[in-house]
User: Fold Formate--tetrahydrofolate ligase from Desulfofundulus thermobenzoicus.
Amino acid sequence: MAYDATKLKDFEIAELAEKNMPTPAEWVEKLGLEKDEVIPYGRICKLDFMKIIERLKDRPNGKFIEVTAITPTPLGEGKTTTTMGLVEGLGKRGMNVGAAIRQPSGGPTMNIKGTAAGGGNALAIPMTEFSLGLTGDLNDIMNAHNLAMVALTARMQHERNYDDAELAKRNLRRLDIDPTRVEMGWVIDFCAQALRNIIIGIGGRMDGYMMQSKFGIAVSSELMAILAVATDLKDLRERLGRIIVAYDKKGNPVTTSDLEVAGAMCAWMRNTINPTLMSTVEYQPVLVHAGPFANIAIGQSSIIADRIGLKMFDYHVTESGFGADIGFEKFWNVKCRLSGLVPNVSVVTATIRALKMHGGGPKVVPGRPLPDEYTRENLELLEKGIPNLLHHIATVRKAGINPVVCINSFYTDTKEEIAMVKRYAEQAGARCAVSQHWLKGGEGALELADAVIDACNDSVDFKFLYPLEMPLRQRVEIIAKEVYGADGVSWTPEAEAKAKRFESDPAYADFATMMVKTHLSLTHDPNLKGVPKGWILPVRDVLVYAGAKFLCPMTGTISLMPGTSSDPAYRRVDVDVETGKVLGLF
Assistant:
C-alpha cells in the first residue's frame, strides 16, 4: 500500500511503515540466514559478513545494477529515492532483490541535504536510526581517526620534551616529525566551517604540541574510504597500517604503523566491516555500509555490501555518489577493478528540472522556492539541457554497458517534456523509463523495473577506460577528455612535480586514480552547466591516501569541511517528549 506522499512528510511515512518492519528474527527467516549471521541492534541488525560470505561462497552472483545520475542541481536528483523505488518495483515483479546504499553523514542531515534516505514511498526505514548514527560505524571511524591524531600529537610533545636517552627508556624512537607537514587533521560529523583551520596545543609544555591543525567532516576521512574498498577484516587492518599521518624533517612518510596505533584503530573499527540491514517501506532488504565523500574519495556503497548482496539476492542494486562523471567513473575504473565485480546495467537518474537548469534555467538555491521555469512546461529550455543527459549516457556506454535512463518524475512534469527526454535517450541507444516511485512506491516503478530486467539480459562487453599500467598524468588526461569533455589538462608546477615523483616510484604503480572535482558541473567550475566546450581541466595538487591506495588529483576548490547554511535542517528537528519520537527529519 502506498502512503499519500502529497500530504505526509517523509518521517510520517516512515513512522507508519515501521510498524510492520521485519524484526531481526524475521529477517533470518525471510532471507534464509543462519541465526548467528544476524547481530541485533535494537529493531535493526548487522549482518556478519565473514560468516555469510563463507557460507555462500559457491553460490552464483545475482544481477548487478548500479545507479548513477546526470549532473545534479544543488538539491540532488533522487538517486537514493530511485534506488529504493527500483528495489520496490523489482519486488512487485516478484524478484528476490536487495540494495546497498551509503550511510548518511550528520553534516548534510543537520544542514541542507537531509537524511539521504530517499523520499515519499521510496524510502529507507527506520528513518530515525538511519539519520542519527545507525549502528555506530561513523562513531567508530571518528574514534579510530582521531586516535591516530592523538598518537601523533602526543608523540610530537614527548619528542620535544625528552632527549633520545629518555625516549629510549620509554621504548620510543625519535620520528622527528615535521610540524609543517602533518597531513591528517581531526574529524567531526558536522558541517563546521569554524574548525577548518585551527591552532592546537596552546598552553604549557604538558598541553601538547602547538601548531596549526584542521578538522574535516567524518565522511572525508581516509578511514571511511578504506572501509568502502576493503574486502575483509585482514585487508582493513593492512590498509589502516599504511596511512600516512605526516612526514619527517627529511621528507619520509610517518605512518600509523610508525606511531604503533594501527592495531588500536582496527580494534575501534572491527565491527564496521559488518553491513547494517534496513528495509524499504515495502519491506525489501537494504544494506547500509560506508559513506565516503564522492568528490574526494570513492563515493560508493562498500565492496563488502556488494559482495554479500550479490550472493543473497538475484538482483542487487548499488548506488554511486553524484553524477556519472564522478560516481560512475569511480565505480567503473576503481571499484569494479578492486572488487572484480562487473555490472549488468547502470541506471542514469534524470529529472526534468535538472535538464532545464542545464539548458540555461535560473539558479537553483536550496531552501528557496524553485523559479517558475522549473514548474511550468518549457520545451525550449529542456531541449537545450538534454546534451548533459546524452553526455552521461555516452560515458556509461564507453564501459560496455547499455544504460537505462530513469526519469524521476515530478508532478509538474508534462507529457510533452517526458516524451522529449525519452526520444533523445532512446536515440542515444539507452532504454528510458518514467518512474513515479516517490508518489506510488513499487507500483510507480514497474516501468523502470521492467526496463532494468530487460537490460540485465543484454550481454556486457565491460572494459576499463585505462589500463592500471598507464602513468598518472595520462590517466588524468583520458578521464578529463573522455568523461568530462575537456580539451586537455594543465598542471601547476607543484602538482606536476608530485605526479612525476609518483610515476617514477614503483610503490605507487597500483594506486587508484581518484579525481577530486565538483559534482555540480562536468568541469572544475560549479557555475558551468550543460556540456561546456573549449576548456582545460586545471590540476593544482595531488593528495596521497596510502592506506586506501588512492592518488587524488585536485581540481578546482574542494573543502573537506563543508559549512552550515543560514537555514539548516536542525532548526526543524525536535523530539516528541511524550513518545520520544524524533520529528522533522526529511
